[in-house]
Amino acid sequence: EVQFVESGGGLVQAGGSLRLSCAASGITFDDYAIGWFRQAPGKEREGVSCISSVGGSTDYADSVKGRFTISSDNAKNTVYLQMNSLKVEDTAVYYCAFGSGYSRRPNDYDYWGQGTKVTVSS
Question: Less CB within 10 Å around the terminal CB: N or C of the chain?
Answer without folding.
Answer: N
